[in-house]
Specification:
It is a single chain. With 626 residues, the chain is mainly beta. It has two helices and 40 strands. It is globular. It starts with a helix and ends with a strand.
Length: 626
């Protein structure tokens, strides 16, 4: 049958429209990390091959961890272009089928010495004026936040600054009143709701008690004028503390005008003597009216956080089935390896949540919460305690050393408070589920989630009595001076003399959860750790940095591991169907996928992670069928 060339061209054009595009971080304004594409599927995924690579040169080992880069970008596909940001905050626009650079925007901020650790930019946001003429400049925009606290608006077609926005295309958040002095930084893309840009920011958790409040602000996307702001710190406490920031991506229910915020702790994380009053919006899932900033409902997931258990992942909006009943759901994962699910319109839990007793603090003046919320379903994704009895080692000897080390610490299960003695924190601040988040498959009504199982020792050092720089210092350590308290703080992995975790493996898993029942469908170890020219056994898994995506082809694409493999799993079983070893560095990011001119591409940032001590790179790679 003869098909006119013009019809073929039209068909290809329709196939390339961004209707089925990965047009926002996480795949859509409500996250979910899912794409309805099945061109690549369980039958042909073994044929996948690398088709292009894009590099900018934007990576650095740094002279200190704070000067190093971590490439965690989740690109977006819109306007028939692929957009992503580099760790230096530059934005690239690429041809989707070749990876050829169309333009590169440089915000011009400094590339070293940040207060918040490594240089990170996890994504950009796209906005389009549906009523603009084609000739109107900046009718399509890329919005990107930067590590120096600035928000930039650039023309999505040209990469030129949108001069009518703020001060020649930029808003400096540091010039706004955050109540207390300090620094604000942006590592996640802002939310876009109509003509509003809504952004939170990072406030240091370990630096000082008197820190900026974690204010969320909405700006007019054309002018940069502030429309509303919301301060999560109670008014009478605002000059005594800071934090309760929103550093991960937010989620938006466009139809309901709801904005979902995963909030963090008040300052400072491991010492809460100054914040005994109720802080209902701290470590909480908060629903705001997107157009006004009005609080609709909230649920506190961690009480009186002493562990850096800020909610790290974008809330997932899903029209799910729970107990056979359809419900508009919002799903929040935590560093503790727990999943909380709510009716996103009312805040009612979809699975029962129990308040369970947890250990008390022995720090003078501290009042740890006597209980913490635990969902009845699903069960925790990781171990809930590490003791001398279940310590792990490569040999009988180092297992004994691990057991002795753990026995010297407080180890009373999840939520054991930090102490001068040293306390076991499990999962640690990187563990459970972090910013890589989870994927929701609407066809199966399943959640697919990465989780990490590692333990840290969390210790408070009486100020001026102990030199914190003496001892086992590694790039995995976190901590700070805790100005305004009697202590300094450090949290570090609990490792054997061989450098292996004292936590029993698997150290990383992928789990499928049935939302209808709250039960696990399957859970498999994922990834391997390269050491001394070898890889650890697959059954041990790997600490995971990054998240999975799911597709209608019955696949889960996942990097995240500390090895240099990018993998595809059968979503029905967790079995690995394909892997590529063509990466320059581990793919410690969340992948994405899109259709362009009738062809499906899968893209991932393969840049490694300086905190995990892997190789680093600036490599963005795409895979497709031959």
């Amino acid at each position: 049958m003869y098909i006119p060339k013009i019809l073929i061209t039209l068909l290809l054009y329709l196939l390339s429209l961004p209707v089925l595009a990965w047009s926002a971080y996480g795949g859509s304004p409500g996250g979910g990390q899912y794409a309805p594409f099945d061109q690549i599927n369980v039958e042909n995924v073994a044929q996948l091959e690398m088709v292009w690579e894009h590099r900018t040169g934007d990576y650095s080992q740094g002279t200190a961890v704070a000067d190093a880069t971590t490439f965690e970008a989740n690109p977006v596909f819109a306007n028939n272009k692929l957009y992503y940001c580099t760790p230096f905050g530059r934005v690239a626009a690429l041809e989707p089928d070749t990876g050829k650079e169309i333009w590169l925007f440089d915000p011009g901020h400094k590339k070293a010495g940040t207060e918040f650790g490594v240089l990170i930019c996890r994504g950009v946001s796209y906005w389009e004026d549906k009523y603009a003429t084609e000739e109107q400049s900046c009718s399509k925009r890329i919005i990107v936040g930067a590590i120096d606290g600035k928000v930039h608006s650039v023309d999505a077609d040209t990469g030129e600054r949108c001069s009518t926005f703020g001060n020649n295309g930029v808003i400096d958040l540091r010039k706004y009143d955050y109540v207390n002095p300090g620094t604000i930084a942006l590592t996640s893309p802002p939310a876009i709701v109509g003509n509003l840009i809504i952004t939170g920011g990072v406030v240091s958790s370990y630096s000082k008690v008197i820190s900026p409040n974690g204010i969320v602000r909405a700006f007019n996307i054309n002018t940069g004028e502030e429309v509303w702001h919301w301060n999560p710190v109670p008014e009478h406490l605002r000059d005594r503390m800071g934090g309760i920031n929103v550093w991960p991506p937010m989620s938006v229910d466009i139809e309901s005008d709801l904005l979902f915020l995963p909030t963090g702790s008040a300052t400072v994380d491991p010492w809460g003597v100054n914040r005994k009053e109720p802080l209902p919006y701290a470590n909480a899932l908060v629903a705001l009216r997107a157009s006004t900033g009005e609080v609709i409902w909230h649920y506190q997931i961690i009480h009186h956080d002493l562990w850096d258990n800020d909610l790290p992942a974008q809330p997932i909006l899903a029209d799910a089935s729970v107990g056979g009943v359809g419900v508009p759901a919002v799903i929040q994962f935590t560093k503790t390896g727990l999943m909380f699910a709510f009716n996103r319109e009312t805040g009612e839990p979809l699975f029962d949540i129990e308040e369970r007793a947890v250990p008390d603090s022995d720090v003078p003046g501290e009042q740890a919460s006597p209980t913490q919320p635990f969902p009845v379903k699903p069960m925790p994704l990781t171990l809930e305690s590490l003791t001398a009895e279940n310590a792990w080692g490569l040999t009988f000897w180092d297992r004994g050393r691990c057991a002795k080390k753990i026995k010297s610490m407080r180890s009373e299960g999840m939520y054991t408070p930090p102490s001068v003695q040293g306390s076991v924190t499990l999962p640690n601040g990187y563990g459970g589920v972090n910013w890589g988040n989870a994927a929701y498959d609407p066809a199966r009504n399943w959640i697919i989630v990465n989780s990490t199982q590692l333990a840290n020792v969390s210790r408070l050092y009486p100020r001026n009595e102990v030199d914190m720089n003496v001892g086992d210092i590694s790039q995995f350590d976190v901590g700070g001076p805790l100005e305004g308290t009697p202590y300094e703080y450090k949290s570090a992995p609990i490792l054997s003399p061989f450098g292996a975790p004292c936590t029993p493996p698997p150290w990383g898993t992928v789990t499928a959860i049935d939302m209808d029942t709250g039960d696990f469908v399957w859970q498999v170890p994922f990834g391997q750790v390269p050491r001394f020219g070898f890889h650890t056994p697959a059954r041990w898994g790997s600490p995971l940095i990054g998240g999975p995506i799911a597709t209608a082809g019955g696949l889960v694409f996942n990097g995240a591991s500390l090895d240099r493999y990018f993998r595809a799993l059968n979503i029905g079983s967790g079995k690995i169907l394909w892997k590529s070893d063509k990466l320059r560095a581990p793919a410690n990011a969340t992948p994405m996928t899109y259709m362009y001119k009738g062809k499906q591409y899968v893209v991932v940032a393969a840049g490694g992670n300086v905190v995990a001590g892997t190789e680093l790179s600036d490599s963005l790679v795409a895979f497709a069928l031959p």
